[in-house]
């Protein structure tokens, strides 16, 4: 195995048993097809994907069309899925299926009566192919509506092996090692440790979520997401203080605090790969495509290690898109069953740029060992995995530029507030939302 690879710490071995299970074709797994029973049926699926993502998803849909005889049309929603779907729902003309980027939207639309519960083979496919947390993610008040169709792994730190070799450091396993050993040694060797993506506020919420999940644990993470504990809680203040060990030090990041908050994603990625002005950049598996655009080869000179443990366990934070049915037209539940199947998701896995939380997708469905190991951490994380917190809270608090979590964490990064002040501002914004 090469010197610099994805550090699994045993996860790949653990994954073998879980990922090889439940892969045989059986009733309800969405792999049997309808044998042309949907000839003449036309369905519409709406999602935010464009470019290569759209092309690959349309190839997945081709499999359903060939199996069933149905025609499936794709509609691109743009980045603001809610803004796209809102008028269509109000006009009574929603797409048959939509991929929602936030669990909060699943609840919002379910409470409006805009979603249709999973039934028949679709419900069986969800039950057969997903573990409890992933099933619950698309459920509202015990009713299953959605399937996590595409996952994003947000608990990795990407690095440049040549920079680590030059400083004589290795990937850390704990936060203290990251700060006191890896980063300090890099800095002392004249290599800037981090490129920060602070102008893109969502990247800062991902920093917080990883540190908080590891420090405070899954139970407190859930309580904070539901605002059952205040943002002024000691666990929040302590997490913000922990982040300040990196965020509060100019020599930790390219351009110091002022430059860090002015650098957007994916410019920060090019500062590590291509420009080679920093050694590390934190963000999800999707950094790989930006690194490749900067001239790096993923798995060789663009590699990653798990977000280090702040507390007892390393965090696994996941984002993604949840497919939901919005009409009761013929073929909709069959398509939902297909999208929830190992067959459909293995097809997408083989095309690249994709991660699945489906337990039936085998490791060899992915083209490389790096992606196989990332997928294993999602499937096998069990009770320690959690969905992106900022996507679970009201969007005006967790996902709006210039306000809420984004702007408050940017203030902490630029040094215009301290951890206690940031916690108070977060609680005020959360209460108002």
From TrEMBL:
Transmembrane segments: none
Keyword Transport: yes
Span of the signal peptide: 1-21
Keyword entries, A-Z: Signal, Transport
Entry annotated with the keyword Chloroplast: no
Record-linked PROSITE patterns: PROKAR_LIPOPROTEIN
Pfam families: SBP_bac_1
SUPFAM superfamilies, sorted: Periplasmic binding protein-like II (SSF53850)
Similarity remark: Belongs to the bacterial solute-binding protein 1 family.
Annotated protein name in UniProt: ABC transporter substrate-binding protein
Species, as recorded: Nocardiopsis rhodophaea
């Amino acid at each position: 195995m090469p010197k610099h690879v994805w550090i699994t710490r045993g996860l790949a071995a653990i994954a073998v048993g879980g990922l090889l299970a439940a892969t045989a074709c059986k009733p309800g797994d969405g792999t049997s097809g309808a044998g042309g029973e949907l000839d003449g049926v036309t369905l519409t699926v709406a999602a935010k994907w464009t470019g290569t993502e759209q092309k690959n998803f349309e190839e997945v849909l081709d499999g359903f069309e060939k199996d069933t005889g149905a025609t499936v049309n794709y509609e691109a929603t743009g980045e603001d899925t809610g803004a796209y779907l809102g008028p269509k729902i109000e006009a009574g003309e929603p797409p048959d299926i939509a991929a929602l980027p936030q669990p909060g939207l699943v609840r919002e639309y379910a409470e409006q009566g805009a979603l249709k519960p999973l039934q028949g083979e679709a419900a069986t496919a969800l039950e057969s192919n997903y573990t409890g947390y992933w099933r619950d993610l698309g459920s509202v008040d015990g009713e299953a509506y959605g399937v996590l169709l595409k996952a994003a792994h947000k608990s990795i730190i990407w690095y440049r092996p040549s920079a680590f070799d030059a400083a004589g450091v290795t990937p850390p396993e704990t936060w203290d090692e990251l700060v006191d050993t890896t980063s300090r040694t890099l800095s002392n060797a004249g290599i800037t440790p981090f490129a920060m993506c602070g102008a893109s506020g969502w990247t800062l919420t991902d920093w917080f979520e990883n540190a908080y999940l590891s420090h405070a644990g899954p139970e407190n993470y859930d309580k904070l997401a539901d605002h059952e504990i205040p943002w002024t809680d000691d666990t929040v203040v302590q997490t913000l203080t922990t982040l300040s060990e990196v965020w509060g030090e100019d020599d930790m990041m390219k351009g110091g605090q002022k430059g860090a908050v002015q650098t957007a994603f994916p410019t920060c990625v090019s500062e590590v790969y291509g420009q080679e002005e920093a050694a590390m950049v934190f963000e999800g598996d999707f950094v790989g495509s930006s690194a490749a655009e900067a001239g790096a080869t993923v798995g060789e000179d663009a590699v990653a290690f798990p977000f280090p443990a702040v507390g007892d366990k390393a965090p696994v934070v996941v984002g993604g898109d949840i497919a939901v049915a919005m009409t009761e037209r013929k073929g909709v539940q069959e398509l939902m069953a297909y999208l929830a199947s190992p067959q459909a998701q293995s097809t997408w896995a083989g095309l690249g740029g994709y991660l699945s939380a489906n337990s039936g997708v085998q490791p060899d469905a992915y083209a490389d060992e790096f992606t196989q190991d990332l997928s294993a951490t999602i499937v096998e994380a069990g009770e320690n995995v959690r969905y992106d917190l900022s996507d679970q809270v009201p969007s005006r608090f967790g996902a709006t530029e210039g306000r809420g979590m984004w702007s408050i964490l940017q203030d902490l990064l630029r040094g215009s507030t301290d951890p206690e002040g940031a916690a108070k501002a977060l609680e005020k914004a959360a209460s108002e939302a």
